[in-house]
Write a structure and sequence with these properties.
This protein is α+β, with helices and mostly antiparallel strands. It has helices spanning 4-13, 18-37, 44-69; strands at 73-78, 83-86, 91-93, 99-104, 114-119, 128-134, 137-143, 150-155.
Length: 156
């Protein structure tokens, strides 16, 4: 049999005190503050992949525009100021820390200066190689002079 005094003690021991609840809330607040102060999570690898993908699509779009409009479309690559501009299309600026070199033609030397690329109405191009470097990661975009085909490759 349970006596009335035992029932009161069991009821008094059940649950949490106000002090325990405040301590838990303070600890949760500190954890959230530390996690929020780190800022957004960024991946340099994904950033490089995104820029390379955007530039590749812009070059493919320039080739398609040259064929559809039956007129040449020009692309300018500026390694010194780190941007790529497509005539009638987007200008893509590279983020800080990412380096850019370009070479016109099939055997041109890589330069940091302004390099031009032209897509002809038949789909061919003057050819180019564009090298993106971000730390130890290097990616090369190649534009074939005969077919105008745009390809990407990781460079060791």
């Amino acid at each position: 049999m349970i006596w009335p005094q035992q029932v009161d003690r069991r009821a008094a021991c059940a649950g949490f005190t106000l002090l325990e609840m405040i301590i838990v809330l303070v600890i949760l607040g500190l954890v959230v503050a530390i996690a929020a102060s780190r800022g957004p999570v960024r991946s340099h690898r994904l950033e490089v992949r995104g820029i390379v993908s955007a530039v590749s699509e812009a070059l493919r779009g320039a080739r398609a525009r040259a064929i559809a409009a039956n007129r040449p479309v020009l692309v300018a690559v500026n390694g010194e100021h780190r941007w790529i501009a497509v005539e009638g299309g987007p200008t893509i600026a590279l983020p800080a820390g990412m380096d850019l070199e370009a070479a016109a033609g099939a055997v041109g030397r890589p330069e940091k200066q302004l390099v031009g690329l032209r897509f002809a109405p038949d789909g061919s191009s003057t050819g180019a190689r564009i090298l993106f470097a971000d730390g130890d990661r290097r990616v090369l975009i190649g534009v074939d002079w005969l077919t105008g085909r745009v390809s990407t490759a990781n460079v060791p």
